[in-house]
Amino acid sequence: MNTSSASFAETHLVSENANKAIKYVVLAVLGTVLMTIAAKIKVPFYPVEMNLQTLALFAIAAAFGRKLAVATILLYLAEGFIGLPVFTKEAAGPAYFMGPTAGYLVGFIVAAFIVGWAADKGRSKNPFKMAGAMLVADVVIFALGFAWLATLIGADKAFMFGVQPFILADLLKIALASSLVAALWQFFRKA
């Protein structure tokens, strides 16, 4: 395997043996647990309180690579679809996917693909390159979330309540996630 272009998970967490599929399943489940915990954590921030859901999403995708990241996010959404309380609010189930956050949830899948693809190309070793991929992914999340929310409450309100208050917080989360994964690469390189 060419580790110069493999994701962190492919390089350090999953070996080439019979247990590879089991390791992928374990990583995906652990990723959904991380997403759930991050969704429930509330951090005081201006202008609105934030949770750490996109931070977890970006870190997972940067560490796991495209295929495992997308599978993890699909599993996370499936858990919410069947009613498990994995999202920010306690609500879950099929009706939740018709609510105001549905576009953002779809955006999570696309974002996992974008950031995971960049990780597969070796960009997670460099926090600036990874931050660029995460920024593109974040714009996609906002675009899909805004588009759906605008159909429910109108474009002006959708931007005012669904995009604008979260821009600064997401920039901070991008900086943290890209730095964290690059630091993991450095740590394991020295270990």
SSE order and pairing:
Elements: H1 8-13, H2 20-40, E1 42-43, E2 50-51, H3 53-64, H4 66-81, H5 102-120, H6 127-153, H7 155-162, H8 167-190
Antiparallel strand pairs: 1-2
Helix pairs in contact: 2-3, 2-4, 3-4, 3-5, 3-8, 4-5, 5-6, 6-7, 6-8
Terminal CA distance: 20 Å
Number of helices: 8
Helix percent reads 55-70%
Taking pLDDT < 50 over at least 5 consecutive residues as the criterion, the unreliable ranges are none
Instruction: Count the E strands.
Output: 2
The helix/strand order is HHEEHHHHHH
CATH class placement = Mainly Alpha
Secondary structure class reads mainly alpha
Q: What radius of gyration results from the CA coordinates?
A: 16 Å
Describe the structure.
It is a single chain. With about 190 residues, this protein is mostly helical. The protein has one domain (about 10-190): Arp2/3 complex 21 kDa subunit ARPC3. Helix content is about 70%, strand content about 0%. It is built from 8 helices and 2 strands; from the N terminus they run H-H-E-E-H-H-H-H-H-H. The chain has helices at about 10-15, 20-40, 55-65, 65-80, 100-120, 125-155, 155-160, 165-190; strands at about 40-45, 50. Strands 1-2 form a two-stranded antiparallel sheet.
